[in-house]
Structure formats: C-alpha cells, structure tokens
Design a protein that fits this description.
Layout (H helix, E strand, L loop, with lengths): L6 H44 L7
Length: 57
C-alpha cells in the first residue's frame, strides 16, 4: 500500500476534513428540519383540538 507523504498527505487530510464537515452540516440540517416538522405537526394537532369547529364529536 502506497501511503502519501508530504503535500499529498495534506491534500488528503483537507479533502477528508471537507467531507467530514459536510457530513455534520447535512446531519444537523436534517435533524433541525425533522424537529421543525414535528413541532409544526404537533401545533396543528393542538389547534384542531382547541378549535370547537374542528373537533370530531
């Protein structure tokens, strides 16, 4: 196996850092989006439950 050294190693480390950073950005964005979706969904359920015209009785 040919392990890079010198400038090649630096390039690989930079590329790995970029991919790792992108992974964390996407993961956090998806988590926030998911949480916001469930907050909106719960707010809609709460609005329906508190509105007398929307209740199914």
């Amino acid at each position: 196996m040919n392990v890079p050294s010198g400038s090649g190693l630096i390039v690989w480390l930079v590329v790995a850092a970029i991919f790792l950073g992108l992974y964390f950005v996407v993961r956090n964005t998806r988590r926030k989006s998911y949480d916001a979706y469930w907050d909106r969904k719960q707010a809609e359920i709460d609005r329906r439950n508190s509105d007398p015209d929307m209740r199914s009785e």
